[in-house]
């Protein structure tokens, strides 16, 4: 079944930057899709249009059966809980502990941070601990985030996204700031999220080799247009 569908999505910044031009594709439940393309191709704009961090100029984004363009604020908040976001620069609250950052995922994106563990139920804390253990962070749960390495920070970001029980993860250049070893750990976790948990993963990458080895499907973007949509095997054999 289709989870996400983009129909003729275009995005203009100002009057003359056409960042996306009639983008069409769909993504199935549980699928692992990489969006690849050079810097400035429109990858980041594409992900932001999907959860409406920015509004597309025209076209439709259908997620989980609803047109996200038509949602009011309250409905959009509900839809966004089904979409976990992962960023290149982690977007963690450095002065808070790892587990507090994860628990704040429950409040939704851009929540007001108060930093009080007591505001969460025991069940929520147990779930956060379980997720952090799956991600190999059981020994770091009470450290401040600014004491962690980049790879550890990104794993906190993944746990924070997963605690909402999302249907889809949108990852914007999740390994662009990481060394090869940490990148592999993060990509292995994302793969596991798709294949074991059944969560759809859409990930922006500029490393083609990584996209080739992890993805079910690759969407190539250049100058705001989809120029390739197919399996990694097809790409490799065309070269
Ligand atoms: P990518 O993620 O592939 O590097 P982006 O989506 O960041 O590409 O950018 C696509 C194009 O849109 C680029 O030309 C970029 O300069 C432009 N762009 C991105 N964000 C903005 C913005 N907020 N305002 C104006 N232009 C933007
Ligand atoms: P990324 O590394 O994620 O591609 P950038 O460093 O290109 O992001 O951009 C950082 C921020 O600046 C983003 O919010 C993006 O939307 C915005 N931005 C990018 N290009 C432009 C542009 N040409 N004009 C205005 N804002 C831009």
TrEMBL record:
Presence of keyword Hydrolase: no
Cellular compartments per GO CC: membrane
Keywords assigned by UniProt, alphabetized: ATP-binding, Cell membrane, Membrane, Nucleotide-binding, Phosphonate transport, Translocase, Transport
Domain ABC transporter: from-to ranges: 4-239
GO molecular function, one term: ABC-type phosphonate transporter activity
Pfam families referenced in this protein's UniProt entry, alphabetically: ABC_tran
Superkingdom of the source species: Bacteria
InterPro entries: AAA+_ATPase (IPR003593), ABC_transporter-like_ATP-bd (IPR003439), ABC_transporter-like_CS (IPR017871), ABC_transpr_PhnC (IPR012693), MetN_ABC_transporter-like (IPR050086), P-loop_NTPase (IPR027417)
This protein's name: Phosphonate ABC transporter ATP-binding protein
Originating organism: Halalkalibacter suaedae
